[in-house]
Design brief:
Low-confidence stretches: 1-8, 25-57
Radius of gyration: 52 Å
Shape: elongated
Mean pLDDT: 84
Largest sheet: 16 strands, antiparallel, barrel
Strand order of the largest sheet: 2-4-5-6-7-8-9-14-15-16-17-20-21-22-23-24
Number of helices: 4
Amino acid sequence: MNKDFYVLAGALALGAGCMAQIASSQIGPSAKQAPKKAGTSTTLTRQHRSNPALSPAASTEELDQIKQTIADQRKEEQQRFDLLKQQNQQLSEQLKATQDNLTVAEQKIGRLATEEDPQITKLESAVAAIKSTQVATTGYIEHEKKLQPEREHPTALRYKGITITPGGFLAAEALYRTHAENADIGTSWNSIPYDTQTMAHLGEFRMTARQSRLTLRTDGAVGATKLTGYYELDFLGTGYGASETQTSGWSDRVRQLWGRAQLPSGWTFTGGQMWSLMTTNRIGAENLAEFLVPMVDGTQLLGNDYARQNAIRLSKSFDNYKITAAFSAENSATVGVTPSNVPSSVSSIISGLSTTGTSALSNTTYSTNVAPDLIAKVAFDPTFGHFEIRAIGRTFRDRLNSTAAVAATPTTPAIPATPGQNDTVLDGGLGGAAIVPVFTKKVSYVVEGNWGAIGRYGATSTDVVVKPNGQLSPEKSIHGLTGFETHPTSRLDSYVFASDEYLPRNHGYGLRTINTSACNVEATVATYSCAANVRNLAAATVGFWYRIYKGNAGMVQYGGDWAYMTKNTWSGVGRAPKGVENVFETSLRYYLP
């Protein structure tokens, strides 16, 4: 707008004021004069009425005086009326002139508005742009406010397009076993001493920090494909030089080390060392979603089958049906048992089941494997829980070495030479699991079970039994676990589980003619010669975790549990030995934020 516009606007305001004044002047004097005129007439009437009766002699003179007085008053009124009429005429002329000026001003204002319309449009566009920028700035400020806590207390690091998230916990733990195993925080359920062994008469107390765990996760993306890497370690390794007598220099060990690619189509490819697909999941069939009994002990409760080993895994999620299908090829291993009825001439020429490692792994026992374990799983995740079925296919192999001919003697016949041969056996197993929330998800019921050649995935760890002729017979064991997880409050978790693993008689395994008399004589581990075979392991545990603190600085929680276990054997010639174990454990852990 230019200067003329504001001048005209002022003229309009001035004109409006003049009109108001003119209207007041036209109405005001007339209204004021009328009462005055009426008042004069009233006064005369009153005076006339108040005069005494005129005398006949003076009546003519008084009447003339009254007439003159009235005539003078009328003359004054006429003069006033003429003056008011003249003033009204002047004011009417001024009003008309003012109205004409206002009309001209309005017309000019209209022309100015039309002439400056492009400028106004440009100004309006500029204002709209400023408003848009203001909205964007406000949104940016709000976004920055939301990011401020993350910047002040970052949960991850950013590096060249990937997000790096450290994690893990530091643990201070203690345990007491009523029957000593001379083992750390991981209890070997299959190795608890029988009641007649020396170690069964010794209790065991131990404090340790070796279960402390460090993790590192990386997340990135290539287009719509999500990439994840994961590394996890603890300090339960058994490297050379480890000792608790002075320095407690325990070695770290790899727990998990894998990479994963998740495609938007629902396909997932994973490779590396990870929890086996035989491990029960809480949801789907993906990594970092496994179900583990939350006890302090570093070894999972028996009946909860698992392994951590190198694998290649492929899975596909069908979100519309809440179904995940997965398949993996995993590193294999064989745990074999050679019963007492296998002749020494046969057991001495068997190779491949237990082989000592070489070089830096000379303290490690391997089996000579022929193929990976193949595992398939189908998981179903409706709103009322998680359900899965799984199957495993395994290949076992050993070798009977060739033997040279033995010449006849006066007391023994000749034995011909025998060529070496491999014995390969295919077998497998089936299993399933369910996790069902109950009581508004504060309690979850858990059940799982597996049957077949699944030995080393459980605590009993028996895959095959060597027959008297040297061939292999897969051990069809049965493993099961059931129990409850509860979450009474946001700080407290508790649990109770019971489990069992059963091994049937198989050729020489569980042989009824085994002499178990030596099992009932106290002896040290080095001199113990009990030949009894385990029939089943049964266990129960109850425990809790309480979160003392959870916030930006991480989490501190305290936990404790009690586990009770029995080891039962197959009867032979003599009383079948039995082992009982009670383990009490506590843990104080600080979790990284």
